[in-house]
Amino acid sequence: MKNKLLLLLLFLWTATIQAQTLPPLQLPEGAGTLRLGVVCGEESRWLDQCKVKNKGKHYTVKDKLWKGGKVELTICSLTDTQGIILKATAENLPSDARLCWAFGACDDKVVKTEQNDAIPTDACHDNVFCTEGNAFTVYYGEVMRLRTVHGVMPDGPEPILCDAHQQNNPLTLYRSGKKTDAPVIAALRTWQEGETLYFCLYKQNAKADYNRFMLPALFDKEIKNNP
Asked: What pTM, to 2 d.p., does this model score?
């Protein structure tokens, strides 16, 4: 299963290199999609709408919205379970810059189609979210065979339910409201100069049960194991 995850990541990295854009992060077997964006004042942009430099696990994302600033991303697969850990840093972003993240679309029976690099709405219908601070669990699948995906996000305001049909930009999604047949969760937080943020999405097992304070060391271990 780990080989499948590595192949998926390799495919996404290859697509990024060819297209020079950053695709949203899709977990294997329909286990969900993570989307990241930057908000500056009343304008906002998804990172997958921006130009990307660098290759492999390391991305540098630039856009005219944050002028001469940049966002650095590094992603690794997890050794002990199906999942990923993502490290993000910001440099020279505007003083009012904020990070928006969104997650959803957990449905292993839905055939994914191209939807403009969005979280696929047709995979969001039966997702049930349970949040606790910066962590969440998504329940999906058949009632007697429920599956779960766990997420540990940066600290900040607790995520809220949003409408996956409204993904034109991060602010539109965040302000969309929870009355929808395609729910996702999203959060909006400040992003200070030089601040490093970690995101972890995974299938829980006896070896994999993570908290926010564990993520820096977990990332260092995984980047060493998968250079």
From this structure: 0.86
